[in-house]
Structure formats: structure tokens, C-alpha cells
Amino acid sequence: MYCFPCGARIRRNGPYYAYDTRDTHHSVCIPCYNKSRGHTIEVEGQMFPKARFQKKRNDEETEECWVNCERCNCWQHQICALFNDINYDVKQAYTCLYCYIEEVKRGLHVPSPQSAVLGASDLPRTALSDHIEERLFKRLKLERQARAVQSGRSFDEVAGADGLVVRVVSSVDKKVGVKPRFLETFQEDNYPTEFPYKSKAVLLFQKIDGVEVCLFGMYVQEFGAECAFPNQRRVYLSYLDSVKYLRPGIKAATGEALCTFVYHEILIGYLEYCKQRGFTSCYIWARPPLEGDNIFYCNPTIQTTRTSDKLREWCLAMIRKATKEEIVVELTNLYDHFFITTGECKAKVTASRLPYFDGDYWPGVAEDMVNQLHQEEDDQKLQKKGNAKKIIRKRALEAAGHTDLSGNASEDDMLMQKLGETIYPMEEDFIMVHLQYSCSNCRSFMSSGKRWACHQCRSFYICDKCYSAEQELEERERHPSNSRETHELHPVTS
Question: What is the pTM of this model?
Fold first, then answer.
């Protein structure tokens, strides 16, 4: 359950305010209810009287439906029975699978042919699903061959993961709106009020014992070339989830579980597809989902929830494979790329450069921080005691690339300093994958054209614009900085 005004998750057993109509349900968290001034609350652009909201507790249990077989009178879980009550004819009694099989044996029913039952392979195909499937099947064939060689058996004698289907089951246009306080901070910079993106859901199915089972799912947000900076040509991997049902449940030739091999190949295939389409980077927040935030409703008892460290290592193992194939050209994290300026980086450290994704960690935290900064400025008592809270630590500002340390820092500088302090302890969880090379000077991505590389320095590349500016400098000011010698830069065509 989520708060409509701020989007925050209302925790289980936590209090909240609700207003129900015939068609809608509006839930508001306690902080938003208390902060609303006057006698009304704004929800999705409409004003509602506060008096109509009732205080409730998020402790309602949703009971799953059961069905009763009118032959043997046994009860079965509706989902397990694959019973769809929407298409159910009330004139016909429900018959469980076991009774139905007995009636087929006695000639009372003629079962429908398999071709009459639509499966996962009948779902619409897309260019993305075809790309992932083609790669996955090719890699699985090579893995099976390697396993056969290791065991000294023929290809047909070793088990393989058969009946797999990848489909994009949802692809819709959405927009993520920028929160009001953050937008107010950068209104002079013409910061966008919203960012359009394509929301996609990719699922993996396997036919197990005649039933199509969904094993793996991922939700992605694709911000295309038409999207404004800083979200332009970026991808956000918002959700990953799986259930441990893939067959066969064996180890791959690489030593990892075969299901891990399959899921990694799906992700690498997606990154490869994004790279070919011109996307520049992909962002992964390696955090185990909160209860209720999973794609799948529940997991089998044999499957344990990954810790943050294990989930991060699982993602990094996938990225290392993609790096070997040169799909990924660089691995970093949100903090190192946007909050720190070292060496010859001339990019401005500002919150306006951070990619603004729907449901990501930092936008909500930043909004709270801006609210806090405004409250501190409005608090007369704190102002009388001095400006201690407004003074930014010198070391933090120097690390962030600010040279003018006199007086109070700007609101942007203060926000970045506070945000950096919050993100830094968990910086490794905010994974940033470069699909295109990034300029070491201005940090812009070079998706096409020419880039200039230094053969003496590891991972030093600059764009055409920065190279032209470099040539206008005196020789002692050129790359590498703070060095007596000058390195030659060589052109590389993307």
C-alpha cells in the first residue's frame, strides 16, 4: 500500500488515513495528513475534505479463493487448480483434475488437443524478446555441449533446459514527475517537470509437466533519445525476481547453478539489445525488495531471500560476463560518477545531473532533504543560534569539487553534500553500468563519432569537444594534469 500524495510505502501494520468511494480508494500516510494545512488534502490533483478520511491500520489479510469439487467434494486452492471463475459457466459443476482424469478414462469426456490450449509461446513476440531468446538458446546449447564434454557423454545424454520462452508482456508509455521541492531548487536551470519513459516487463516461462510456469521477471524503464537531460538514453532496471523452479536443477558447466546461468544470459542479452539501440548506461539498485514489493507473490520454501551483499555480487558476476564480451565498457557507481571529481574531471557536481528514475532511492530522499533545508531556513530560533547547520564541511566540499569555500554553500551544494553522506555508506549498491564510453573530462557519453584515448593511461577517454579545448591549452596544462610529461591522445572511432 502506498501514500497517494508522496508515493511512500505504508508499512505493514502501520497507521494511515483512507477515503473510499464507490470506484476508488485513497490512502494517505500520517506525515502527509499532518502536513496538509487547512481542511482539505490534495490527492492526484483533486481536493478532498480531511474530515472524510478515516484512520486505519494496514493489517488487512487478503484470503485467497478456494473451489469445491462437486464429484469428490474436496477443496482446492483456486490458483493451484488453474480454475478461472471469470470464464466459468454456472450451469456446469466444477470438477477437480483427478475426477476429470477418471471420467476421461471412462469415456465421459474427450480432452481438448494441446494445440487448443494457448501457451507462453503464443504471446506476441517483439524484437527484444526475439533477441534475448536467440542469445539464450545459443548460450544454452554451448553450455550443454561443455557439460557433455566434462562428463564424457554425448550431447543428447546430458539434461538441458528445454521449453523456455521469453516474452515482453507489457510495454507502456509512462512519465515520472519531478517532485515539487526538487523542481523548485532548479527552476532557474529549466529543469524538466517530468521525464517520459517506456516501462517494460520481461518474463521467462518454462513448460513443466504440461503447465507454463513463470520463473523469472524483470521490470525496466527506458528513457530514449527524445527524453531530456539528465535521463536521456538511460535505462533503469527497477525490479528483478525469480522462483527456484527451473528444470533441470543442476549446476552449469561454469560451476554456477543453471538457473543463475539462464538469468544472467537474459540480463546480458537485454544490455546488449540496449547498447545496440544507442542507450548509454544502465542503473541497478542492488537492494533486496521489501516484503510485498516482489514481482512474484511468494517463493518456494527452498529459496532463501538474498542479502544485499549476495544480490550485489550476483549482479556484479553478470556484469563481469558482459564486460568480457565488451557489451559493458565500464563499471562504476552513482556516488563515484556524480559526487566525486578527481583528476581531470571538469564536470559540475550538482543534483541536476543525477538521473531521475521512477521509484528510485535518491529522488525521495532528496525531496525530504530539500524540505528539511527549507524548514531550517524558516526556523528563527536556529538562525539566532548561528549558522552552524548551514556551513558545509570543508573536506566534503573539496571532495565534491567546490573551490569557493567562503560563506554559505548554495542549496544545490548543501543538497549534494547531504545526499552524498547518505549514499556513501551504501555506494556499492547503486551500480552504474556504462554501455558507451564516458568522457573523462565532461562525463558525457560518446555514443557515436570519434573519441580520443590515451594508450599510457588506463580508461582515459575524452570527447571531440574536450579534445579541441585540450589543444588550446599550454603543453604543461594538457593531459595528464599535475605531470611534467605530456601523453599523446589517439583517435578511436566508435
Answer: 0.81
The DSSP string of 110-134 is -PPPGGGS--GGGSPP-HHHHHHHH
* Residue 429 DSSP one-character state: G
DSSP secondary structure letters along 172-205? EEEEEEPPHHHHHHTGGGT--SEEEEEEEEEEEE
Whose cell is 502536513? That residue is 35
Phi/psi-derived region of residue 212, left when phi > 0, alpha when psi is between -120 and 50, beta in every other case = beta
Omega before residue 111 within 30° of 0, cis = no
Cα–Cα distance measured from residue 343 to residue 487, given in angstroms and rounded to the nearest whole number:
15
Choose among 321, 188, 343: nearest CA to 265.
Answer: 321
Residue ranges and CATH numbers for the domains of the chain are 14-58 (no CATH), 66-111 (3.30.40), 122-339 (no CATH), 450-493 (no CATH)
Query: How many Cα atoms are found within 13 Å in the side-chain-facing hemisphere of 10?
Result: 26
pLDDT digits (tens, 9 = 90+) for 275-328: 999 999 999 999 887 766 788 877 888 888 788 899 999 999 999 999 999 999
**β-bridge mates for residue 315, sequence order:** none
